[in-house]
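task queued by scheduler; priority normal; single chain, no ligands, no partner chains; default sampling; output format set to structure tokens
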Amino acid sequence: MSVAIVTGSAGLIGSEAAIYFSGVGLDIVGIDNDMRKVFFGEEASTAWNLEQLKGKLGSKYTHLAVDIRDREAIQAVFARYGSEIKLVIHTAAQPSHDWAAREPFTDFDVNAVGTLNVLEATRLNCPEAVFIFTSTNKVYGDTPNRLPLIEQETRYEIDPDHTYLNGIREDMSIDSCLHSLFGASKVAADIMVQEYGRYFNMYTACFRGGTLTGPQHSATQLHGFLGYVMRCIMTGTPYTIFGYKGKQVRDAIHSNDLIRTFHEFFKKPRVSEVYNIGGGRFSNCSVLEAIETGQKLAGRELNYTYAEQNRTGDHIWWIGDNGKFEAHYPEWRQEYNVEAILREMFEANTDRWHK
């Protein structure tokens, strides 16, 4: 038996990974205790997605409601399967700037210490396994906000003569900037994943994502930009734009496009790699542009207000450069742009969100 352990398996990326890698022949052990409900309330619970996942995968999926902060429990899971574990996909996290500032110990324990627990369990029980970590572009802190940006009608854009015109590369510094506490805890995890790769010669990769999204997202105000925009449009829920005139830009990658990057790395793993991964120039939008596209798809207006104060550490413009990953894995191609992502969200959630 070949096993993939997926933490955060009921979440957006975790559930997509579980379904995908089950399809290529791995048995899935999912670790998820629905902390998203604790972080963001009932509307963000992933329980509904877990039931779908169990229904789709049946006996190919084993679910464990284990907290990644519980070192002994995590160690016991990995010891149970040992060398049968071929792949570890670590997606479990506290994902919000705002929430992290409310409970810094919990944020750091989940994001940094939890990641260390999973890494060490991997090293002790299945050191040859491929270890994939869903990091974040927030490891760069607010350094992207120092880029030369030009205000346009519906978005900010980078100076066309800048070296990052095609997107921000991995050579951007993560030092001497404001990260937010969430960003700092993810930096700690990111660096630890790299270090386990280099120090112990393990196959590890940090995928520093922009906006990761898809129809299975349990979107909420504090996390899940595109999903929450579409949800608010469809349900008539009031929406707040925080700062930058709504012209802040995000690249967005569909969960399936992201999981296929994981598969490419799994097939030909490397030691201690770091990749910026996201929609890039292929799939990106401002908040205003996302609202306009969502309204056209849903055929109704969004009830939104504007708050002048932006979120701490929020990026004005983020478009990542996928070039390093594409150079290493040239067969990978993106399939979804922003419009396709929002259309799928609308169609997949009509029964749940339409009012």
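post-processing summary
- DSSP finds 13 helices and 15 strands in the chain.
- The first strand starts at residue 3 and ends at 7.
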